[in-house]
Amino acid sequence: MENELTLKRFSEIRRDLGYTQAEFAKLLGVSNTTADIERGKTKLSGKVVSELLRQFKINPLWLFGESDAKHLDTAKTSVIPKVVTVDSQDNDNMVLVNAKAAAGYPQNIADTSWYKQLPAFDLPIPEFRNATYRGFQVEGDSMLPNLYPNDWVMARAIEHIDHVSPNKMYVVVLQDSVMVKKIEKRPNSNNITLISTNENYPPYDIKPFQIQEIWEVSSKLTFDLNPTSNHGLLKQLQESMEELKRQLKN
Asked: Which of 4, 58, 156, 202 could form a disulfide with 52 if both were Cys (CB 3.0 to 4.6 A apart)?
């Protein structure tokens, strides 16, 4: 029989994450429901404890009342790019992830061969030399009036979640989706709040471990042309980069 604190903490994790007993059971590989575990009728197995650690970074020592640190390594949650793409000269290049590709991006985030199907550009501009940039196409209208559907954003890789600032926009890659949002970290909270600039979309909270990558938006491009014509895209990219260079000089 687990101690009461462990059962309380197990139930608390499920409620905090917003899962029903049946949904939580499915995630943890338990048959039917977690009700018996929460009532102390079924033992909390090693497999469940390891799944809690693997999926939600829950510290097993916290679960058993032997530590105050609920999460392991959330401070070190890595949001750096899982793959850095390079051109034939081994220089970083900029991959463009259109709306269609974005649907498969979270699942293929570490698959180097997957990136090869996407158009990529080399930007011979010093400002783009010492950082990793990627282009993402904007879907939906949650960032109006700043960004329109089908706009593109050029975004720079961020190494750590502590480097985000509340007045910038970010491409946030979660485990199952890619979105552009503002990010707010509240003091004394484990949560991170994702904010849309379009007021019709309420802010919502996520946990740091749900984030795979964060890219800071540095410029946006609006295309009226067919995005599959890489030549037109390149021309517009270059114009946008010239504009960016002027902004940087000023």
From this structure: 58
What is the residue whose two structure tokens read 């029989």? 1
**What pLDDT, in 10s, does the model give residues 78-125?**
788 888 887 777 777 888 899 999 999 999 998 888 998 888 877 666
CA 9 to chain CA mean position, Å = 27
Chain length of the chain = 250
Closest CA to 213 of 248, 142, 164: 164
CA-nearest of 174, 176, 105, 164 to 136 is 105
Across the chain, the runs of DSSP E, i.e. the strands, are 94-97, 120-121, 133-137, 152-157, 169-174, 178-185, 192-195, 204-206, 211-221
Residues contacting residue 123 through CB under 8 Å, at least 6 positions apart:
93, 94, 133, 237, 241
Per-residue b or e along 77-104, where b marks 16 or more CB atoms closer than 10 Å to that residue's CB: bebebeeebeeeeeebbbbbbbbebbee
Q: Which helix (H) or strand (E) holds 28?
A: helix 21-28
Say which residues have a Cβ less than 8 Å from residue 192's Cβ, sequence separation at least 6. Answer: 161, 183, 184, 185, 205, 206, 207, 208, 211
How far, in whole angstroms, is CA 148 from its chain's centroid? 21
Compute how many other C-beta atoms are within 10 angstroms of the C-beta atom of residue 241: 19
3-state secondary structure 77-111: CECCCCCCCECCCCCECEEEECHHHHHHCCCCCCC
Instruction: Supply 205's token pair.
Output: 């909270």
What one-character DSSP code corresponds to residue 32? S
Contact between residue 191 and residue 175 where contact means Cβ atoms under 8 Å apart: no
Strands 94-97 and 133-137: parallel
Asked whether the whole model's pTM tops 0.85, one would answer no
